Automatic annotation (TrEMBL):
Coiled coil: none annotated. Its main location: membrane. It is a multi-pass membrane protein. The keyword Glycosyltransferase does not apply. It comes from the Bacteria. Belongs to the UPF0114 family. The chain crosses the membrane at residues 28-47, 88-110, 171-191. This is UPF0114 protein ACFFJH_00610. Keywords: Cell membrane, Membrane, Transmembrane, Transmembrane helix. It comes from Undibacterium danionis. It is found in: Cell membrane.
Amino acid sequence: MSQATHTEEPQKLSALSKFIFASRWLQLPLYLGLILAQCVYVYHFWVELVDLIRAAMGDGVALQHLLDAVSVAGSDAVRPTKLNETTIMLVVLGLIDVVMISNLLIMVIVGGYETFVSRLGLQNHPDQPEWLSHVNATVLKVKLAMAIIGISSIHLLKTFINVKSYEAKELIAQTIIHVVFLLSALAIAYCDQLMSKTHQQAQKH
């Protein structure tokens, strides 16, 4: 005798439940706005990169643009007349900073939409990000915290490279903020670990 297969029909939602559930689509304009912000970062990246290449070829106007971008307001440091190693390093770190913020935006846009709005249907897609296959609100928080630490590290490194332009209290403040970011990420990861262990123990019983 063949066994009959029973499929559970989806529960019918009330009108109020449908309305509340559909309210998640209000987040769609926010994610579209972040995509526009991503476009701004792409434009800014290429402007900085073109200026760096032109300055390396001896363009004085491009060099002034770069110095304006990396100089600290109110600093009495003498501006260089040609591209030097410190300026190149600061500009490259700025480009890396843009890339890391762009990665952060991608995680928020793709992961947030997948988690809070609607499935993207990327299963078995060759370009599906590895982290997206097991993303949830907690995992997304941990990844965002790690990305913020990376961005903070770049800013702190830029500060120490240009250390003569900053006062001691500014250096201490940036270092403390970076340490706070580190501790916050560790706390989030620890809470995630506790929740995972609790969930595993609940499944065993």
